[in-house]
Amino acid sequence: MSDLKKEPVAEKEPVAEAAETTTEVAEAPEATEAVDTAGATETAPAAVDPRLLVREQGLAGYLNDFKRRVRGGELGSLPVIIGLIVIAIVFQLKNSSFLSADSLANIGVYTSGLGIMAVGIVFVLLLGEIDLSVGSVAGVGAAVWAVLSVTHGVNDNLAVLIAIAVGIAIGALHGFFFAKIGVPAFVVTLAGFLGWSGLQIWLMGKEGSINTPSGSLVENLTGYYFQDKAAAYGLALVAVLAYAGSLLLDTKRRKAAALPARPLSEILLRTGVVAVISFAVAYVLNEPAGARGLPLALVLFLAVLVIADFVVRRTTYGRQIFAVGGNAEAARRAGINVNRIRISVFAISGMLAAFGGLFIASLSGGATKNLGSGNTLMNVIAAAVIGGTSLFGGRGKIWSALLGMLVIQSIQQGLNLLGMASEIQYMITGAVLLAAVVIDSVSRRTQKTAGRT
C-alpha cells in the first residue's frame, strides 16, 4: 500500500509542468524540452526547438517568436495593453484632465476594491468554474464588520478579521457543495447569491445602513493618502528593484539548469520600461498642484496582486490549480487532491470578496443592505475576462484583474469627465466584455488549429 501511495507523487511534476505552459511563462516547457533534446542527442541527432534559441538571437529572435505566438493565437495581454493605450489617448484628447493627478488617483482608488474581488474570480476561472456570489459575499462581509464594530463596539481590527473569516467560510462552503456533493458551481454560487443577500439584509436590520465611523480602519482603506512624496517614489523604487531582482534570479536559475537565459541587455531594457512607468505614475500622483499623494487603497491592491501572483506562479499549489483547470481527471491520476484544490480556491474567492466589500463600504460611506448589488458582479467578472483570463479554465494570470479593472474604470472615469449617462457606460463595458470573450474564443480555436492545445 505504501508503494501505491508514493507512485502518484512522482507524477506530479509532469502535470505541473504541463499546467504551467498555460501561464505563458514558458519555464517548465523549456526545461522539459531541454531534457528531451539532451536525451535525444545521446541516441540520434535532433533539431533544437527554436523557442529555446529566442533569447540567444536577440531582437530578431523575439520578433520571430512574437510572430509565431500571434499566428498560434497566443495573444496574451497584448489586446488589453493596446486597448488601454487607445482609451488613454482618446479620453485625453477629449478632456485634458483625464491623465491628471486627481483623475489617476480616482482610478486607482475605485479600481482597488473591485480589483481585489476580481483576483478571487481569476482563481476560480483558472479552474474553469464561475462564482456568482461574490457581490453578496462582499455585502455580508461589510455587514458583519459594521454590526460588530459599530453596533456592538467590537475592536475595529478584530471586526475586519472576523468579516474576512466569514468570507473564507462562505467560499469554503460553496467549494464543499461543488467538490464533495457534485453540485455545479454555477448552481451553488447562484444559490449563494440569493441566500447571502437575504442574510445581508437581515444583518443590517430595519434601518438598512450603518455609517462608517470617522477615522476607522475601513474609512482609511480608501480615504487615506500618503502625502509624503517619498512614499510614492519609494514604492516605485521598490517595484523596480523587485522586478529587476526577479529577472536576475530567474536568469541565474536558468543558467544553473543549462537553459537559455535572458541577456543582460534585455533585463536592463525591461527594468527600464517598468522604471519609466512606475516613476511617471509616482510623479503625477505627487508633483502637480493639488495632488493628494499615493492612495493606501492602491498599495493594498498591489500587495494582493503580488502575493496572489507569487502563489499561482511560484508554488506547487499554484501549479496544481492550473493542472486541475486544464484537466481535472489527469490531475487526479497524478496524485493531486482535486477536491482540496477546488474547496480552497472557492475559499480564496470568498475571502477576497469579503475584503473587497470593505473597500466598497469605505467608498460609499458605510455598509448598506444593497452593498454589492447592481453591476458589482458584472464588473468583477468582466475585469478578469477582459484582462485575459480564459473562461474555459487552465489559462490566465493574476495581473489580469489589474488590467481588466483599469480598462473598466478608465472607461467609466473618461465617460464621467465627458458627462455621459450611466446607461452609456453599461453598453460600452458590455461591448468590451463581449470583445474580450470573442478574442479568447478565437485565440483558443487558433491554438487548436495550430496544434498548441
Helix content: over 70%
What is the terminal-to-terminal distance? 36 Å
| Nearest-integer average pLDDT | 82
Total E-strand runs: 4
State the low-pLDDT regions, or none.
1-49
Give the strand content: under 5%
Query: What strand line-up does the widest sheet have?
Result: 1-4
How are the secondary structure elements laid out?
Layout: H1 2-10, H2 12-20, H3 28-43, H4 58-71, H5 78-94, H6 101-126, H7 134-151, H8 156-181, H9 185-204, E1 209-211, H10 217-223, E2 225-226, H11 229-256, H12 264-286, E3 294-295, H13 296-314, H14 316-326, H15 328-333, H16 338-364, E4 366-368, H17 376-386, H18 400-417, H19 422-449
Antiparallel strand pairs: 1-4, 2-3
Question: Can you walk through the features of this model?
Answer:
The model is unreliable at 1-49 (pLDDT under 50). This protein has 453 residues and is mainly α. It is globular, with a radius of gyration of 23 Å. The protein has helices at 2-10, 12-20, 28-43, 58-71, 78-94, 101-126, 134-151, 156-181, 185-204, 217-223, 229-256, 264-286, 296-314, 316-326, 328-333, 338-364, 376-386, 400-417, 422-449; strands at 209-211, 225-226, 294-295, 366-368. A two-stranded antiparallel ribbon has the order 1-4. Strands 2-3 form a two-stranded antiparallel ribbon.
